UniProtKB/TrEMBL annotation:
Any one biological process term the GO annotation gives: cytoskeleton organization
Classification via PANTHER family: BROMODOMAIN AND WD REPEAT-CONTAINING PROTEIN 3, WD REPEAT DOMAIN 9
Record organism: Donacobius atricapilla
CC terms in the record's Gene Ontology section: nucleus
Identification of the protein by name: BRWD3 protein
Biased composition (Polar residues): 168-177
Amino acid sequence: QIEGQGHGAVFDCKFSPDGQHFACTDSHGHLLLFGFGCNKYYEKIPDQMFFHTDYRPLIRDANNYVLDEQTQQAPHLMPPPFLVDVDGNPHPTRFQRLVPGRENCKDEQLIPQLGYVANGDGEVVEQVIGQQTNDQDESILDGMIRELQREQDLRLINEGETLPNPPLNRSHSANGG
């Protein structure tokens, strides 16, 4: 029983190497931390943390492999995602560095910048660039991710590695544009 939310299930549980702490995730998206000692370390972490890719649609290719619908790339081969809150707003750079693969990124590479756009009423409003769209109705944040993936692919090719799944045409957005 999850207080205020009804019944739920524990999906995963991991123990610390010393056995003094363990963490669980449940079917409602909660992370539960148990253990002995002080919790000051965990008080620094935001209450809501999601990857911006958590709810992106997936598809299957001709070989029945799972791909990200927008980038046509296997999810485990995509660049590291950004940490966001429940509304999709990115967390500050100190939290973005907690994501494996982003530890040594420059600040400007860690979170999208704020911009100003005209809404439907003609007002100019502040908006996270990751929520804006470009000419192909793709969010600018997704465009940045696609560019990071392209750079990673080029780096792998230059290092003589072959790409596990050659990327399909990434210039199309999720809605087929």
